[in-house]
Amino acid sequence: MPVPEPADPGTTREWPGASNALGSEPSAYLRQHAHNPVHWRPFGDEAFAFAAARDVPVFLSIGYAACHWCHVMAHESFEDQETADYLNGRFVAIKVDREERPDVDSIYMAATQAISGEGGWPMSVFLTPEGLAFHAGTYFPPTAQPGRPSFRQVLEAVHEAWLERRDAVEQNARMLAVGMANAQLASAVFLDRPPESLDKSLLSEAVRLLARSEDPDGGGFGGAPKFPPSAVLEFLIRHAAVASDTSDAARDMAGRTLAAMARSALCDQLDGGFARYSVTADWSVPHFEKMLYDNAQLLRVYVRWVRLHGDWVLPAGEAASVASRVADWMLDSLGVGDPAAPDGLASSLDADTVVDGVHHEGASYLWTPAALEAVLGPGDGAAVARMMNVGPSGTVSELGSPLHPGHLLSGAELALWNRVGPVLHAARLARPQPARDDKVVAGWNGLAIAALAEAGAILDRPELVTAAESLAEYLVRVHWRPAADAPANPGARVLIRVSHDGVARGITGLLEDYAFCAEGFLALYAVTGRRRWYGLAEQLIRGACARFVVDGRLSDSVGESAQVFNAQGQHAGLDPFDNAAPSGAAAFAGVLLSYAAYSGSHEHRAMASNILSLLPPVAGRAPRVAGWLLATAQAAAAGPIEAAVSGPSGQQQRELHRALLASPSPGMVVAVQHEMAGDAADDDGAQPGDRPAEPEVPLLEARTPAADGSPQVYLCRGMVCDLPLGSVEELTQRLDAMTESAG
Asked: Which of 26, 50, 189 is nearest to 101 (CA)?
């Protein structure tokens, strides 16, 4: 039952400074709410101090710019004056962009799931002024629905509990924080302990468990809604490269999922790029936001499939075409500035398109038979409608259906599509387009650098490598900033997570940002041979060790917020499980393993092994949330192989280098002795004299050319090398044998 309004306590008339404070925020998501009648504040000490001064709870709303249901709740509740008046009078309202503050999102998502049993966005959490969660949910409608109260009912119930049962509310909040702390301690990783040996049987067991949840007809795992399982696919493809009794099963599962997604509505058939997820099990009705982190991961996975050198389930040529279109979409649609040399990649495109002032989900992408015929004429229009599953009843809304063949196009179908696709694409560009969130997130750009560099090498598209280097230059110039204590610590730098319009601001990078950027720079080094990228990866890895390892224990973040620290029971947090992107811990294990292979560092190899100790209890229960840990473990089981290319530059060295990059060997690192022209003249934003000498790559030490001066390749494990090889044929045969036997 609704609770009668109290006489007055805490109305906004008593707090004349209260108003919507989001107008000057750089976040696109926060600016979307800058004109709400709700008196939103950004997350920070000031907002919580205001709540303490008023002695009212905090209403914390978390979402992101491309989120459809965030728009829905905003329109229904946050734009409603009566709801806003009630909220303003009894709460302090805080808005958070989860993409800028994943540390805030992570801890309060865990609290929301513990309280309500569900999670998602918009996330609605009620906090004490100290930041402790005591009630939470996700989307609340304006009127009650079966099993879900209205937003006003929730506000009234929370307000009544705060006034009448404060002691119980605060006690429950403290108990939840203790529970969060215990969960953190249970999954703690200590990097200063003797490493445990890896049980390789876990990898095959994970494949068998994944097979039990596979949808062999629709591809992917589980039922609707379905998300692209990028990290799991990375593991399956790595596992498929190594001979075992589960390698064929891993290959076929990965192929079925990749093929199903590529031929579905999840993949934009006109413009490339993948939507966030599908609301149906057959991938036919996507949720239309397009995220950089999804597409960067999927680009890399499709390229990795090409490297398996086979046509099982998904032909390599089709995979290469998908990868090429995804790369083009990333640069054309998300590139800031010149797509050929972007100043960062933007975060996302919105799920909704605003048409005549009204939000319509996926409006830019939907077609009816009549719309197709209007553009293509009756004959081609009807043929495309049949081929792309566009019927008279729209599968998304009255605006129509997305284009999706659901099968590999035949020769005649492909010829038709190649002819009409550009015409449809031009017609679609004339429609209103979804908004873009222009913020540049360091870690996601790191993922994109790795994907574009490898795609450029494997697809023979050097312009993609050039774009990857441009992204890397932007991160170094804008995000890799002098530390605040630089006078006391000359040369020290920190990574800033987010930039807007070429200016970095906000919190320093989290563990995932450091790990993803280091991963990108190492991939760029492997492709280009430029020692600078290796040196920057080394700086990031060492910086992450100094920042996120405290008393031997690894954490995702360090002291960005007192309220987050309180909410997690005043213990540093580490979430080992993959979400939309690999977990920071898993990604860090991967870069530590690669760095150890390049540098010969037993210390960093041991750190990677300690993080992989998270795997045994997870791999046997929930491998779907541990894909990147499994992928890293597969690389560790394979060695990984260390490849050093010595000798002078030229055609022979390029062919040897390309053969190495084309290998599917899990986690293999590649070092090339040759430095490209201009490497020493690069500008990373440092002042003259600030830059240390470019580091030597230990893997290349004492790697000499052949007796006749020609290039040759050393294949090693643990810095112990076989006799060098000078021909591509010898190299390929030896590499295949080492890879297949690496299980």
From this structure: 26
Q: Which residues contact 398 (CB under 8 A, 6 or more apart)?
A: none
* Alpha-carbon gap, residue 175 to 169, rounded angstroms: 10
Indicate the angle between helix axes 442-458 and 511-528, nearest 10 degrees: 20
Integer angstrom CA distances of residue 257 from 214, 382, 429: 9, 29, 29
Amino acid letter for position 101: R
Q: Which residues pair with 410 in a beta bridge?
A: none
Question: 651 Cβ partners below 8 Å, 6+ apart?
Answer: none
Measured in whole angstroms, the distance separating CA 222 from the mean position of its chain's CA atoms is 21
Query: pLDDT of 242-297, one tens digit each?
Result: 999 999 999 999 999 999 999 999 999 999 999 999 999 999 999 999 999 999 99
Residue-level pLDDT at 147: 85
The span from the CA of 542 to the CA of 603, in Å, is: 12
Q: Read out DSSP for 152-197?
A: HHHHHHHHHHHHH-HHHHHHHHHHHHHHHHHHHHHT--BTTSPPPP
The pLDDT tens digits for 147-177 are 899 999 999 999 999 999 999 999 999 999 9
pLDDT digits (tens, 9 = 90+) for 426-471: 999 999 999 999 999 999 999 999 999 999 999 999 999 999 999 9
Q: Which residues pair with 125 in a beta bridge?
A: 60, 136
Q: Which run of H or E residues covers position 549?
A: strand 549-550
Pairing of strands 549-550, 553-554: antiparallel
Residue 555's region, left for phi above 0, alpha for psi from -120 to 50, else beta, is beta
CA distance 611 to 251: 26
Q: What is the DSSP letter of 291?
A: E
Q: How far is CA 107 from CA 506, 561, 578, in A?
A: 19, 11, 15
Q: What pLDDT, on the 0 to 100 scale, is given for residue 485?
A: 60
CB 616 within 8 A of CB 633: no
- The string of DSSP letters for 199-242 reads -THHHHHHHHHHHHHB-TTT-SBSSSSB---HHHHHHHHHHHTS
Q: What is the pLDDT of residue 290?
A: 97
722-728 long-range CB contacts below 8 Å, 24 or more apart?
724/646, 726/652, 726/656, 728/655, 728/656, 728/659
CA-CA-CA-CA dihedral for 450, 453, 459, 462, to nearest 10: 170
Contact 97, 64 (CB under 8 A): yes
| Residues 517/443, Cβ–Cβ less than 8 Å | yes
Q: Report phi then psi at 542, rounded to 5.
A: -65, -35
Q: 286: cis peptide before it, omega within 30°? A: no
Cis status of the peptide bond prior to 225, with omega within 30 of 0: yes
Which residue bears the tokens 């470019």?
694
Contacts of residue 173, defined as CB under 8 A and 6 or more positions apart, other chains included, come to 127, 128, 132, 133, 134
* Paired sense of beta strands 290-291 and 286-287, if any: unpaired
DSSP lists the bridge partners of residue 554 as: 549
Q: Give phi and psi for 687, each to the nearest 5.
A: -75, 155
Q: What is the CA radius of gyration of the chain?
A: 26
Half-sphere exposure of 6 (CA within 13 A, CB side): 15
Q: What's the gap between Cα 285 and its chain centre?
A: 22
Q: Give residues with Cβ within 8 angstroms of 449, minimum separation 6.
A: 468, 471, 472, 475, 517, 520, 521, 523, 524
- Predicted TM-score of the model (pTM): 0.92
CA nearest to 595, candidates 447, 444, 698: 698
**How many CB atoms are closer than 10 A to CB 560?**
17
Q: Which residues of the chain carry a pLDDT beneath 50?
A: 1-14, 676-678, 680-691
DSSP 35: T
Q: Token pair for residue 363?
A: 């409006």
According to the model, what pLDDT value does residue 64 have? 94
